[in-house]
Amino acid sequence: MKDKILVNIKSVEEINQYQKANLNNFLIPLANFCVGYDTLTLKEILTLKTPFYLLINRLLTKDDLDQLSDILNQIKPFIKGIFLEDLGVLEVIDKLNLPVEKIYFANHFGTNYASINAFLKRGFDSMVVSNEITKEEIKEILAKVDKEVILQVYGYNQIMYSRRTLITNYNQEYDFNLALDNTIEENITKKKLKIKENPYGTVIFDENIYNNLELLEFKENVKFYYINTTDLKVEDVLKAIENKTDAKSSRFLNKKTIYKIGDIDE
């Protein structure tokens, strides 16, 4: 099972800690090309001594894509694959003729096998399945996808991404000085939501850890089980893998989402 666990890395030092626990699949969020993640700079990435997957999850401009081409040229011998959201990255990969896996990671898109297969037929090697659907829906996806996909099994769930710098805008409007890595409280439910901003946008996370580790029982057509380590310590991640975690929220897995009143009686 550990040979299919994928974790995102928040610092170079974490890699050695995970390798000691026999975890060897790493997702590296690239500095200046990610939102909602702790990132590694190009200089740090060049020190890595193990192959990795690269994460690029923000919306890009033409200048960004040109800059990305230069970066990928420098690190291409070490990249196994690229997780991407902006489809412009595909053009960069093709122009550089990079022999890497192309994995589509749009947080809320992978909700059914038909749309996933459509992306796979258009050049993607895999896709991350949404963690906002039920276990039965995921089971159906795994039975009908054309290639292996990636399941999100643990971590704080990203519930919103905006290209706007929301905290900065709020600070400017009301003359506040709130930190860009913060917690906000929703007025009605009193839920406390994690919020992170950088120059490229703002991400809001649910207050609870999504513990979808029961999905580890699914073997067919699974490429990786992804653990989002954002705001988690390495030791907490390792405890979760060994089923020694107190996090109990599986949220959508066993409760179908209600989109309209007519769905309530289904």
Structure description:
- By secondary structure, the chain is of the alpha/beta class.
- The chain has a single domain (2-156, 209-260), classed as Phosphoenolpyruvate-binding domains (TIM Barrel).
- The protein is built from eight helices and eleven strands.
- It has helices at 12-20, 42-45, 62-75, 88-96, 113-121, 135-144, 166-174, 234-241; strands at 5-8, 25-29, 52-56, 79-84, 101-104, 126-127, 149-162, 181-185, 192-198, 201-211, 222-227.
- The protein has an eleven-stranded mixed sheet with strand order 6-5-4-3-2-1-11-7-10-9-8.
- Helix 3 packs across helix 4 (88-96).
- The longest helix is centred in the first third of the chain and has 14 residues, at 62-75.
- It is globular.
- The model has no long low-confidence stretch (mean pLDDT 93).
Globular, elongated, flat, extended or rod-shaped: what is the shape?
globular
**CATH architecture level-2 label:** Alpha-Beta Barrel
Describe the strand arrangement of the main beta sheet, using strand numbers. 6-5-4-3-2-1-11-7-10-9-8
| Percentage of residues in strands | 25-35%
The CATH class designation is Alpha Beta
Alpha-carbon distance between the two ends = 36 Å
The CATH superfamily is identified as Phosphoenolpyruvate-binding domains
The averaged pLDDT comes out at 93
Helix percent reads: 25-40%
pLDDT below 50 for ≥5 consecutive residues: which ranges? none
In quaternary terms, these chains amount to single chain
Number of domains: 1
Count all strands and give the number.
11
Q: Label the structural class.
A: alpha/beta
Tell me about the largest β-sheet. Answer: 11 strands, mixed
